[in-house]
Amino acid sequence: MNQENQSKADVQAQFGKNAANYVTSTIHAQGKDLEKLKAIIDWTGEECVLDIATGGGHVANTLAPLVKKVTAVDLTTEILAVSRTFLEKNGHTNVEFMEADAEQLSFPDESFDSAVCRIAAHHFSNVAAFVQEAYRVLKRSGTFILIDNTAPEAEKMDFFYNQIEKRRDYSHQRALKKSEWVQMIEEQGFELEELYRFPKQFYFEKWCKTMDLPDNEKHALSKEMLQAPEDIKRKFCITEEEGKVASFQAEASLIKAIKR
Where is the signal peptide (predicted)? Predict the structure, then answer.
């Protein structure tokens, strides 16, 4: 199995066994970014929206009352099942679920008015292919909204953040910097319209539990974070309680771009 296929298999394994955790995770189910997502477009009620890598279905749940139809896709069968149950319990009947790879979408060109991908792209093995596919399936003047955890611009901080995420979740590929996203999106042909930054507070125990990290690995990760240089601990606001990491702070970014 080549590296790209192995990465996809890792994502399916991790999200398959932890699918239910992503529906109930407060980091994923809540957030100012979801409110911004609703407000950032003047929804008419006639839009067909593609929710790429839907995960727990929170984007679909947020937008279903505002649009004509949401097509929610994900690579992992198990997570599609729990997100479908979540949406059905909330009474949404205009959401279609499909198994699909964000990097090889099975839709015709110019199929959607908007495409949204939230807190997922750091798992993709070929981010450029994902951006290219989002561009392809959007109609002219369609809106692309990318929401994801982003790494700091400083190389040292970028390395630390991606390292601890990889230690917690082996299916993590890389959280890009804001500058990398902007460059990639503009190079594809999108026109950048808006960018927002959202601080994210992670509570260490819950953060580890979401991926069912074994205790020995959790303790080793906590020790590594507490032994980080002082400038890193300040940057990520790492707090300690009883000799263990209690919390830290990172960020997510929301980028709105238009297909020209």
Answer: none
SS3 of residue 58 by DSSP: helix
% of the chain beyond a pLDDT of 90? 85
Long-range contacts of 226-235 (CB under 8 A, 24+ apart): 228/160, 231/156, 232/156, 232/157, 232/160, 235/152, 235/157
Alpha carbons 105 and 53: distance in angstroms, whole number: 11
Q: List pLDDT tens digits, range 139-156.
A: 999 999 999 999 999 999
Q: At what angle do helices 155-168 and 215-226 cross, to 10 degrees?
A: 160
Asked, for residue 51, whether it belongs to a domain, the answer is yes
Residue 183 lies in a domain: yes
Which candidate, 5, 253, 1, places its Cα nearest to that of 125?
Answer: 5
Which residue segment(s) compose the domain that 71 sits in? 3-151+170-200+252-259
**Distance between CA atoms of residues 171 and 122, nearest Å:** 9
